[in-house]
Amino acid sequence: MKQAARIVAAAVLAVLAIVPALLYDYVIGISAGLCGDHASDWPRTLAVGVPLLVIGWWGLRRGNWIFVAWPAAVFSSAACLSLAAYLDSGAHGHCETMTPYSRSPAAPVRYS
Question: Which of 4, 12, 46, 53 gives a 20 to 30 Å CA spacing to 65?
């Protein structure tokens, strides 16, 4: 019963860690999402899955370290996701941003 309570408490901490991890990943990876649309899904999936499995399994086997390991696995996963987005050349494209001062009468006004 004590181990089940430990796992549930660590899962709650990991879920709470998802919010800042998603904000971190959003702030770091916003340019790849705006300017690149040819990114592959498998590097991102691998970047998320490997830290969660490795660190999560390690924490599960170490008793009270699970309270540190599972939230750390979430943050490590977010960091690896940012690294994968940075290293994936298909995620980055040429990004043209129009400003109100770069309009021409012949072109429709579209802001990005």
Answer: 46
